[in-house]
Write a structure and sequence with these properties.
- With about 230 residues, the chain is of the alpha/beta class.
- It is about 25% helix and about 30% strand.
- The chain contains five helices and twelve strands.
- The chain has helices spanning about 40-50, 80-90, 135-140, 160-170, 210-225; strands at about 15-20, 25, 30, 55-60, 70-75, 95-100, 105, 130, 150-155, 175-180, 190-195, 200-210.
- The strands form three sheets. Strands 5-4-1-6-9-10-11-12 form an eight-stranded mixed beta sheet, with helices on both faces. A two-stranded antiparallel sheet has the order 2-3.
- Helix 1 (about 40-50) packs across helix 5.
- The structure holds cytidine-5'-triphosphate and calcium ion.
- Cytidine-5'-triphosphate binds near residues 104, 135, 153 and 166.
- Cytidine-5'-triphosphate binds near residues 102 and 152.
Length: about 230
């Protein structure tokens, strides 16, 4: 094989990747969102397709990114919509990688008309409710034996300890832990991470393109599938 061309080691496999960041609407013109660019999820989708997988990409608010060739893209907006699309696609999937930044909370109420200022009055507080935790739910109720489930976590402070605790709490097989900071992760082309596995192993991924991290994730997934 030529350099840069991968063995089709995911041929015959169906993988689901979520990407982007959910938006939780307050009214027809406003939402609560996050800074996820979607680039890591798209890199995962492209690299999986290049390795022969059938790929479903559940894409939350990524209209700024071109659809990867040969990938089935399912656009979603909110966490509830993302959950529905991921669970549906996961029913026959060999692996699910949750790279999307899913909002933990959504506004308790949606105003069908635009929220207006009222003269001399303070605004109403925004009341939030919890969103479903898609990764924890899928990890707890495995729909397919042997399905490999991967989460992503952006952490600050004691990054590895936070990551280990999160991996245990979520119950997934692999957790990709990024350290976030001023000039790290969000929207940048390059990334650096450690992939923590439920079996206790740690795979450091040096600073580099998001495709390189994606290929490491698929290496670890492929090893668990075979
Ligand atoms: N995730 C999810 N559903 C949610 C929130 C998060 O599926 N409602 C997934 C993300 O896609 C990611 C992983 O869980 O793969 C970790 O997300 P993170 O926000 O780091 O985890 P939380 O449990 O929400 O922890 P925190 O309180 O630190 O935000
Ligand atoms: Ca969260």
């Amino acid at each position: 094989l030529a350099r840069g061309v991968r063995e089709p080691d995911l041929a015959g496999r169906h993988v689901v990747v979520s990407a982007g960041g959910t938006r939780e609407p307050l009214d027809p013109v406003r939402f609560l969102g996050n800074r996820s660019s979607g680039k890591q999820g798209y890199a995962l989708a492209r690299t999986a397709a290049a390795r022969g997988a059938r790929v479903t990409l559940v894409a939350a608010n990524t209209s700024h990114l071109p659809d990867p060739a040969g990938v089935d893209v399912v656009p979603v907006g909110t966490a509830v919509q993302l959950r529905e699309a991921v669970l549906k696609a996961a029913a026959d999937a060999d692996a699910v990688v949750m790279a999307a930044a899913v909002a933990d909370f959504r506004p308790a109420a949606y105003a069908t008309g635009k929220i207006k200022k009222k003269d001399g009055q303070d605004p109403e507080p925004v009341v939030l409710v919890r969103n479903p935790d898609v990764l924890a739910e899928m990890s707890a109720d495995r729909v397919r034996p042997g399905q490999v489930i991967v989460g992503f976590a952006a952490e600050t402070d004691d990054v590895l300890a936070n990551g280990r605790a999160k991996l245990a709490r979520k119950g997934c097989d692999l957790l990709v832990v990024n350290e976030v900071g001023e000039r790290k992760t969000f929207g940048f082309e390059d990334t650096e991470a450690v992939v923590l596995a439920a079996d206790g192993t740690e795979t450091p991924v040096p600073h580099g393109p998001k495709e390189a991290l994606a290929d490491t994730v698929w290496d670890l997934v492929a090893a668990r599938l075979s």
